[in-house]
Amino acid sequence: MNEPLLKNAPIREAIIEFQTLQTNSDIDALKGFIKKNETEYPNIKEKIGFQLSARFGVEASDVKSSKNIEGYILSDESKKKVIQISVNKLSIHIIKPYDCWNNFMNIVYNVWEKYISSVELNCVKKISIRYINEIEIDLTEIEILEKHLKMLPKIPKSINSNVNHFFMQLGLNNKEKDIYSIINQSFNPPNNNILPYIFDIEVYIEKDYFNWDKLWEDIEIIRDFKNNIFFNGLSKHIIKKYK
Question: Cα separation of 185 and 93, whole Å?
Answer without folding.
Answer: 20
